[in-house]
User: Which sequence fits this backbone?
């Protein structure tokens, strides 16, 4: 296993369930100091919701050792030699390099944060939030505060980091080049409410603005924006998205796909015999378009790692693909999305329509009712559901799972509009907003 | 329209959208004092969560009048003459009876509470909770309390009433002949938690005990149980379930189905030409068994009423059937169910297996994590999903909609176990408990 987070260790565990130590020796090398952890929980450790940091670790190397899986942290694989069937590994603690043979290789090198090439990017005080090490450092900074935090980028991690710093009394500004926040998963008419709920508690959100430079000599002191504004900053958190770590595989001669991630078949096999890949570094197939995609989501890493491990262990299982379903909660506003947005559908050559419905999370007369908005996307003519976005108060976002299940089954919007969903006043109106959005998009598609 | 609640008035509204007043005159007769109201919200008015009572009314007769729909409350249809094409209607306010002709008739007579034939059932202080009038009376009693309330029956309405009285400081005892509560929709191993959460706040739950008599001379004073216990009672609420009101239709020669409710086809047409029926009084088709069923749920009444109205208005739409999806929240425990329980499946001739998974509503490390339990039922061999039950803390129960959507699509449990559902720590584990339950039942079925 090259890489010991979700994909690698899911694969290791599944392979071990099917092959005894005498049949299969399993060794995992992980660059960071941790294996098998929840990256998605990191912003909540920074915020102080979840302590200690170790609660985010699903299994330690010691726990894996009990399963006869060797997990080496702070070990980075530097080279894969497919002819010799060896990997060259550097022990980052001691600086030594050694060679380990393999019969089967599983590449789970994950993703790395995208870093723009602007001045000051390497100054102390400029952080990512990707690994548990990052989370530990940011938590120490939060604890030493408060001060001014600038978040560069308006994606999930950036906004979750913004909320974490705000929660601990920091002055927080989010700067994004996009027209709105979360603009890789939500349309602008859906994400406005996220900005409103951030601004309502005092987080400043600056859209359509690029960061020009990060200023400071020994430590970051400010962020310079295009347009001229200088934002004071005691810490900068980069949340500009991530790219797959595929160089190691590419250097070994393993094919990458059109997304730049490692190409795999539905058994997670790469182009090289006996070499598997899963997680953020590998492509997956989008069920709606049939095209390869590369999403960096814990759900997909766990699932594809599981598939790789079952197949490594002698099983025969195909990964059925993804919809890119994602969810988060930003300052009491829940957001989620699945499948394609209308623009994505049209880019994929599908003639698509969309419709938006606004309602409440519960019966309208329920004391805790909060507003909710659902956008549904369907294919013109057939009415086949293609995607959905949900924004709203408590209870809103997990409704995305109904759309994900519907799209998974190639369901038509018209059919979903009649599905027997659950109703009681604390949970929805008698017609759930899912029904209403589905009916509206079915009408638009016909 | 015979009956002016969910089914009748949904039908009236849909028919009016398609036919102008010059094409179709629409008159609705409703026995109670209200039309188009949310019966499901009544326990929450009794509890004092929702005020005034009128908030439960979706549309008043005046609002219907603006749509050119005549809605007469306190008017009861006494006879349907299919040959003469007339209904005989009693004005309950004034005691007069008159005759109204019809071309098309829609029967939405609903359901009535089941009343056992035991002594004292008609004493003052013995109430149902079905109509808004019932809710109004119970609210007045609650406000005049506190005292001792005895709830007879452990179904949804009984438990919701129990919580309402408890919330207002009453001593509450629930007596049910069943082995547990909610035993028409949940298996005993799932419903135990509901009893625990009721008892935790001081509601007494007496199972496997029939009520023998209701005692009192001018007003109820106590309830006598089989086994001899006498429960003091200032009010008794009956929650023993309900039966369809189908006598009027049967007397007119309209066919009833095997459930005792009015038989209809998928267009909501009865056996009589030009006569439709929808809502609690009509049968519907269960999608899993293909058999007629008669559920009394607001969702189904609204949907079947809509179908009837579209067809009355000249449209052509088939009702696609039901799964019997239901949900409620009892004292912080959310419960929901859809499709078949294992016993129901076997009764329908389907060889079924079940599996139960226990986990948390959020990531396990999330501060608000509460436990949740999901039972899934699947067909042996094929793995086709047949049903599911969910019990748990906040966020648990609406997960039933994913199962409902999956079952609606004849999905296999194995396929659901890989579906791209949403994950973030405030919402679920990286494998949602839905996945885990689906995987377990798929394994059991194979």
Assistant:
């Amino acid at each position: 296993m090259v890489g010991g987070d979700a994909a690698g260790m899911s694969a290791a565990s599944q392979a071990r369930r099917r092959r005894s130590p005498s049949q299969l020796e399993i060794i995992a090398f992980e660059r960071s100091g941790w294996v098998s952890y929840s990256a998605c929980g990191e912003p909540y450790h920074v915020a102080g919701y979840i302590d200690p940091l170790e609660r985010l670790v699903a299994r330690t190397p010691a726990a894996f050792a009990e399963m006869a899986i060797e997990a080496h942290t702070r070990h980075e694989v530097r080279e894969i030699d497919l002819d010799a069937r060896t990997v060259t590994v550097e022990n980052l603690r001691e600086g030594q390099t050694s060679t380990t043979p393999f019969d089967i290789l599983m590449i789970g090198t994950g993703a790395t944060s995208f870093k723009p090439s602007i001045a000051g990017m390497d100054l102390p005080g400029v952080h990512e939030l990707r690994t548990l090490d990052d989370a530990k450092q940011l938590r120490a900074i939060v604890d030493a505060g408060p001060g001014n935090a600038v978040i560069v980028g308006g994606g999930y991690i950036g906004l979750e980091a913004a909320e974490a710093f705000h929660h601990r009394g920091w002055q927080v500004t989010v700067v994004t080049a996009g027209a709105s926040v979360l603009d890789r998963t939500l349309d602008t008419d859906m994400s406005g409410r996220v900005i409103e709920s951030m601004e309502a508690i005092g987080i400043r959100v600056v859209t359509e603005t690029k960061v020009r430079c990060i200023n400071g000599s020994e430590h970051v002191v400010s962020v310079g924006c295009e347009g001229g504004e200088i934002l004071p900053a005691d810490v900068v958190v980069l949340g500009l998205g991530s790219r797959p770590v595929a160089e190691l595989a590419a250097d070994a001669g393993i094919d990458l796909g059109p997304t730049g991630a490692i190409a795999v078949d539905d058994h997670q096999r790469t182009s090289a015999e006996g070499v598997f890949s899963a997680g953020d570094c590998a492509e997956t197939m989008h069920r709606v378009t049939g095209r390869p995609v590369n999403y960096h989501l814990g759900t997909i890493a766990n699932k594809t790692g599981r598939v790789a491990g079952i197949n490594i262990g002698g099983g025969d299982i195909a990964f059925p693909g993804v919809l890119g379903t994602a969810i988060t909660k930003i300052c009491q506003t829940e957001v989620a999305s699945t499948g394609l947005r209308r623009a994505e559908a049209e880019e994929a050559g599908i003639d698509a329509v969309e419709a938006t419905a606004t309602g409440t999370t519960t019966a309208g007369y329920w004391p805790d009712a909060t507003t909710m908005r659902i956008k549904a996307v369907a294919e013109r003519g057939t009415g086949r559901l293609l995607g959905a976005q949900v924004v709203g108060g408590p209870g809103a976002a997990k409704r995305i799972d109904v759309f994900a299940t519907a799209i998974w089954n190639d369901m038509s919007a018209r059919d979903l509009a009649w599905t027997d969903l659950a109703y009681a006043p604390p949970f929805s109106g008698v017609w759930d907003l899912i029904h209403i959005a589905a009916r509206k998009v079915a009408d638009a598609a016909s």
